[in-house]
Write a structure and sequence with these properties.
Blueprint: H1 16-22, E1 32-39, E2 45-47, E3 55-57, H2 59-72, E4 76-82, H3 101-112, E5 117-122, E6 136-137, E7 140-141, H4 143-160, E8 164-167, H5 174-184, E9 191-198, H6 205-211, H7 231-243, E10 247-251, H8 257-267, E11 271-275, H9 277-288, H10 294-308, E12 312-315, H11 318-325
Parallel strand pairs: 1-3, 1-4, 1-12, 4-5, 5-8, 8-9, 9-10, 10-11, 11-12
Antiparallel strand pairs: 2-3, 6-7
Length: 327
């Protein structure tokens, strides 16, 4: 490269048209997956105090959200449940109910907008009274017993019309077990989006309030990854691809952009990042206090995911960003 003054890098920043022309990373509504929380409440919507601007939706509102996603060009919605606490138990058995909240929401959303892909969270934490992602015995999360339940949960979700199963539990071997069960049941086209590199993060707090699992007993460090580790993430991803995952995810998002880049460069598979509740809440809270330009920061962060190598982003910002991108 020539040096100054033969090269003046500001030349290609001087006008909007040239900035558009040389832009390396492009964000569209097709890069967004809308994360929503569904509720079995009689109220259509319930604001989530810890996540300004986000609401829990009942089944009818979730169907409306599917139509809105279709109209905005958002290709998929990821569904997370907030159920009646009375339905929770130590093993999360309500997750297996074929007429449960998630199954009813999936059916309603697919009826409303069949063009929109529906991604279901495969995990027990919204359904357990202790808030963990698996069966707990004497304070220990049981891996294999949990995997058995996750397989049953997955099959129930697919029967309801779910397009993509997204195991977020971080139990060893669950991708292979789910893939084998899908093949045996004839669901050969069902996609698996694995939470392959999910870290034991402090950024999940607002989400736990949103789904009603904030009173977590202990922590999740024995099954979610250590935030200090990077090579381990590649081992997790490699195992899940080998077991049958079609796509992989890194969670949280912004603090782990280096992991997104490493995964995409190492494996070249469809790779997604989850802009989690804590990331969303910090941006929204700072914007509400006038400390940042919320819209600008929202779009900047979403672009950063793409620049790091993500093929798409799971985000609560999806409809807001899609409206801006569609203008």
């Amino acid at each position: 490269m020539a040096f100054f003054p033969n090269t003046r890098l500001r030349r290609t920043r001087s006008q909007p048209w040239i900035r558009d022309l040389v832009r390396e990373t492009h964000l569209t509504p097709h890069d967004l997956i809308w994360t929503i929380v569904v509720s079995d409440s009689a109220d259509p919507i319930e604001p989530v105090a810890a996540m300004p601007g986000t609401v829990r939706m009942n089944v009818a509102e979730a169907a409306k959200a599917a139509r809105r996603a279709r109209d905005l060009g958002i290709p998929a919605i990821a569904v997370f449940p907030h159920i009646d606490p009375a339905l929770k138990d130590g093993s999360g058995t309500e997750a297996l109910n074929p007429d449960g909240l998630v199954m009813r929401a999936v059916k309603a959303m697919k009826d409303a907008a069949p063009e929109v892909g529906i991604i279901c969270d495969v995990a027990l934490d919204p359904f357990t009274d202790h808030g963990h992602d698996g069966v707990m015995e004497k304070g220990v999360i049981l891996n294999d017993a949990t995997v058995d339940l996750l397989v049953q949960q997955s099959l129930a979700q697919v029967e309801a019309g779910c397009d993509v199963l997204a195991p977020s539990d971080m139990m060893d071997g669950r991708i292979g077990a789910i893939r084998n069960a899908l093949e045996e049941a004839g669901h050969t086209d069902t996609l698996i989006l694995s939470y392959a590199a999910k870290y034991a993060s402090g950024f999940y707090g607002p989400y736990r309030s949103a789904i009603g699992s904030a009173k977590l007993q202990g922590d999740k460090k024995t099954y979610q990854m250590d935030p200090a580790n990077s090579d381990e993430a590649l081992r997790e991803v490699a195992m899940d691809i080998e077991e049958g995952a079609d796509m992989v995810m890194v969670k949280p998002g912004l603090p782990y952009l280096d992991i997104v880049t490493r995964v995409k460069e190492a494996f070249g598979v469809p790779t997604y990042a989850f802009q989690v509740s804590g990331e969303y809440a910090m941006i929204m809270a700072a914007a509400q206090n006038g400390w940042i330009d919320g819209e600008r920061v929202m779009m900047e962060t979403l672009t950063c995911f793409k620049r790091a190598g993500a093929d798409g982003v799971l985000t609560y910002f999806a409809p807001m960003a899609a409206e801006i991108l569609g203008e």
